[in-house]
Amino acid sequence: MRDAAPLRRISDVKPQRVLAVLLNNELPRHNQLMSKHKQAAAPKPLDLDLRPGQSIELLKELHILTRDGKLNQDSRRKLKQVYHLFQFIEKLLKELPASEQGPTLADHGAGKSYLGFIIYDLFFKALGQGSIYGIETRSELVASSQALAQRLGFDRMKFLNLSVAESAHSDALPDQIDVVTALHACDTATDDAIAFGLQKKAKYMVLVPCCQAELARALNKNKRSTCSVRRWPSCGVTRCTRVRWAASSPTCCAV
């Protein structure tokens, strides 16, 4: 009599095959359920970035939002950068002592005044007092910012077609300014903004230097300098090369 064939144990079945069968049977249903879940739970683009009470019209005018209220990746990145700066400056504004006229802020090299408009919209508008002064040398940007502030009813925003150095002596600004900002103000404008802040007795200065055009001009005058072997103490470089000193760091950059 032949021996009966042994029963196959569950451990004899390859788990990969079991898994494949399960996936083949359940995958269409799983995909369908996930698709419905995503449609129901996906947040609107605006929900991810806007603050309570923030002006959507302002973001459209600044071309951060499209006319139909959408936010692309480039705009989202720009908005996050502005928010990061705003959060930093907001803390400084809140630390200012109370006054009858409210806080004053001068934004040098304002450009299109992205930062100034966002600060006004998220802080000064609800505060009901205080003023922002946008200082910019390009007259067309000053005119467009003035028109936008008027359309939005941002009455305590003022824009002046002046250089930073000129603004220090302008009667259009008060004798004292609480906060001075200069973000990527070109050439020597950052130095002028520091002098402005000292003259205006500013309590805080938020400065991000730009391309250091003055330094670049000085370096260009010395392009014909001869090579020499030197050991730079900041980084230990020893070779025959021209070396330029980075404006924002004590270390050297071999070129």
Question: How is this structure best described in words?
Answer:
- By secondary structure, this protein is of the alpha/beta class.
- The protein has 2 domains: 161 residues, Vaccinia Virus protein VP39 (Rossmann fold, 3-Layer(aba) Sandwich); 29 residues, no CATH class.
- It has 8 helices and 9 strands.
- Strands 3-2-1-4-5 form a 5-stranded parallel beta sheet, with helices on both faces. Strands 6-7 form a two-stranded antiparallel ribbon.
- Helix 7 links the parallel strand 4 and strand 5.
- Helix 3 crosses helix 4.
- The longest helix has 27 residues.
- The chain starts with 14 loop residues before the first helix and ends with a strand.
- The C terminus is likely disordered.
From the coordinates shown, what is the CATH architecture of the largest domain? 3-Layer(aba) Sandwich
Approximate shape: globular
How many strands? 9
As a whole number of angstroms, the C-alpha radius of gyration is 30 Å
The termini sit apart by: 92 Å
The largest β sheet comes out as: 5 strands, parallel
Point out poorly predicted stretches: 15-24, 38-48, 226-255
Number of domains: 2
CATH class of the largest domain: Alpha Beta
Mean pLDDT reading: 75
Q: Which fold name is given in CATH as the topology of the largest domain?
A: Rossmann fold
Q: How would you spell out the order of helices and strands? A: HHHEHEHEHEHEHEEEE
Fraction in helix: 40-55%
Q: Output the strand order for the largest sheet.
A: 3-2-1-4-5
Category from helices, strands and their pairing = alpha/beta
